[in-house]
């Protein structure tokens, strides 16, 4: 088996593990009596991302080969996730928040660093075998998104969306990847350049806040990051809530909400291919603005759509997700790369991720939970002959509040962020 295929398998499994539960977990938490804490479960991913990737990165750099650390981390994450799933299955509707949340948090704490670690392993091995990482890695990484989508579909088709078996399924994939990682070529530790804790955490990049342009950029990165995890946490319960209406109960979207949501990930894959064209044509600021206003449409279309005659509005919301999510993440990363000194560039990228996927996403999911709790509540509803727990309420107001927030952020960014597009510079950066 070629090394590219082996790395493709690694990436496929890496994100399949996440896709098994990320968009469907909220459907389980509600009936399990933990619906009021959905935001907390999603925010903990951002919290552990503030420090765990850096800690494991230091270990991989200094003491343990990256592929071995990847295997160990996945095995530990899988064991805790399996424990959470089995406990949830046994407890049924009497799930203890403290027990389940602790097991879940420990699993996530070991899983989240593996996203960066798997990239590091891929880069290291590709370099060992003489491949150009810029050309060779993107096609490999695409299969990560494909793995995520496949897991979503399997979770949906096997009826795991409302069951703790989704966590057991994720754990099984984690064990497979954990064992598989040990078979990958060795990634040597680095004894030459040893980063300090401050450097590894990207804290030295905080001096960029002295520059007005960079300060504004990072603040808005955090403000946009607020939107990143909202639909992962609440899109599925929203679509499922239509099951309470006889008009929508048998629609494809209600019956297979995870598959409908997976269109977002499919769109994400396709939109990545459009980014170079848009960057060359319009520049970084305009592309980032496209992302911000795409979030307005993402939320707004949820507010007016439904799984019946309005399903096309939901589909449009899934399509714009690719623009909303990737256009800012990738163009923002390019902006950081272009505007920072090489000596601090890695730390600056770490700061960008900390502001978006760390602080921003954490604040966003907790705030979204507060908004949802104000307008909606988990209710036992008769669906045919079966009683189901659904998150019922004024979802239109919820989504319009999120859309309004995204609109304000986009307008303020357009006004306050001063950046002139230079075609030649952008073209050179992309190359």
Overview of this protein structure:
- The protein is mostly helical.
- It has 2 domains: 1-184, MFS general substrate transporter like domains (Growth Hormone, Chain: A), CATH 1.20.1250.20; 201-431, MFS general substrate transporter like domains (Growth Hormone, Chain: A, Up-down Bundle), CATH 1.20.1250.
- It contains 18 helices and 2 strands.
- The chain has helices at residues 3-19, 25-34, 38-48, 52-62, 66-91, 97-128, 133-157, 165-181, 197-200, 212-225, 230-240, 252-255, 257-282, 284-304, 311-339, 345-375, 395-416, 423-430, and strands at 376-383, 386-393.
- Strands 1-2 form a two-stranded antiparallel sheet.
- A hairpin with a 2-residue loop joins strand 1 (376-383) and strand 2 (386-393).
- The chain is globular.
- The chain starts with a helix and ends with a helix.
- Give unreliable regions as ranges: 427-431
Widest sheet: strand order?
1-2
Total discrete domains:
2
The percentage of residues in β strands lies in under 5%
Q: State the major sheet.
A: 2 strands, antiparallel
CATH topology of the largest domain: Growth Hormone, Chain: A
Care to count the β-strands? Answer: 2
Q: What is the C-alpha radius of gyration, as a whole number of Å? A: 21 Å
Mean pLDDT: 87
Q: Quick one: CATH class of the largest domain? A: Mainly Alpha
Approximate shape: globular
CATH architecture of the largest domain: Up-down Bundle
CATH-wise, what's the superfamily of the largest domain? MFS general substrate transporter like domains
Number of helices: 18
Element string (H = helix, E = strand): HHHHHHHHHHHHHHHHEEHH
Classification by helices and strands: mainly alpha
């Amino acid at each position: 088996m070629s090394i590219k295929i082996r790395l493709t398998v690694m990436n496929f499994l890496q994100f399949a593990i996440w896709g098994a539960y990320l968009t469907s977990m909220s459907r389980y938490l509600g009936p399990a009596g933990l619906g009021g804490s959905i935001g907390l479960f999603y925010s903990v991913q951002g919290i552990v991302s503030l420090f765990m990737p850096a800690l494991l990165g230091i270990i991989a750099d200094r003491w343990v080969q990256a592929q071995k650390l990847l295997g160990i981390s996945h095995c530990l994450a899988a064991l805790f996730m399996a424990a959470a799933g089995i406990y949830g299955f046994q407890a049924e509707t009497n799930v203890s928040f403290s027990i389940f949340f602790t097991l879940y948090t420990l699993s996530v704490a070991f899983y989240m660093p593996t996203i960066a670690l798997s990239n590091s392993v891929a880069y290291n091995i590709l370099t060992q075998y003489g491949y150009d990482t810029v050309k060779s890695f993107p096609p490999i990484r695409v299969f990560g998104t494909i793995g995520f989508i496949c897991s979503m579909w399997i979770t949906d088709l096997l009826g795991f969306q409302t069951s703790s078996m989704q966590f057991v399924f994720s754990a099984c994939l984690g064990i497979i990847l954990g064992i598989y990682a040990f078979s990958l070529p060795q990634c040597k530790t680095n004894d030459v350049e040893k980063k300090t804790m401050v450097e590894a955490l990207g804290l030295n990049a905080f001096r960029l806040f002295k520059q007005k342009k960079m300060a504004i950029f990072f603040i808005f990165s955090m403000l946009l990051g607020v939107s990143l995890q909202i639909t992962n946490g609440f899109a599925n319960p929203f679509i499922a809530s239509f099951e309470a209406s006889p008009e929508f109960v048998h629609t494809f979207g209600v019956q297979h909400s995870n598959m409908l949501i997976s269109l977002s990930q499919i769109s994400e894959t396709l939109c990545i291919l459009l980014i170079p064209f848009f960057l060359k044509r319009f520049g970084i600021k305009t592309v980032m603005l496209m992302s911000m206003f795409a979030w307005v449409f993402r939320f707004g279309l949820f507010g007016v759509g439904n799984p019946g005659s309005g399903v096309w509005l939901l589909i449009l919301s899934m399509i714009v997700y690719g623009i909303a999510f990737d256009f800012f993440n990738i163009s923002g990363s390019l902006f950081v790369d272009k505007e920072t000194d090489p000596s601090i560039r890695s730390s600056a990228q770490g700061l960008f991720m900390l502001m978006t996927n760390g602080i921003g996403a954490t604040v966003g999911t907790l705030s979204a939970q507060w908004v949802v709790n104000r307008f909606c509540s988990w209710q036992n509803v008769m669906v045919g002959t079966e009683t189901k727990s659904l998150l019922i309420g004024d979802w239109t107001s919820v989504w319009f509040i999120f859309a309004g927030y995204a609109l304000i952020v986009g307008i303020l960014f357009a006004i306050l962020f001063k950046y002139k597009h230079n075609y030649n510079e952008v073209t050179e950066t992309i190359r």
